[in-house]
Amino acid sequence: MNCAIQNCQICDTDITCKKCNSGFLLSLDTTNCLSRALCNACWTVNKVCAANGDDICLPCNGEVNFKGTICMDTNICASCSNAEICSESNDGTRLRCQACPIQTQPNSAKTVCLNTQNCKKCGSFQACVEVPQSLSLACVNCPDNMPSTKDKLGCLNAKLCAGCAMQNSICTISDCVKCLEGQVASNTGVTCEISEQCTKISPVCVSCSNNTCLQCDVGSQLANGQCIASDSCSAKENCIQCSASNPANCIVCKLSFRSRFGTVFLQNVLATKIVLKLTASVHLRCLVLNLLVPALSAHKQVQPRSALTH
Question: Which of 86, 104, 182, 291 has the smallest set of CB atoms within 10 Å of its CB?
Answer without folding.
Answer: 291
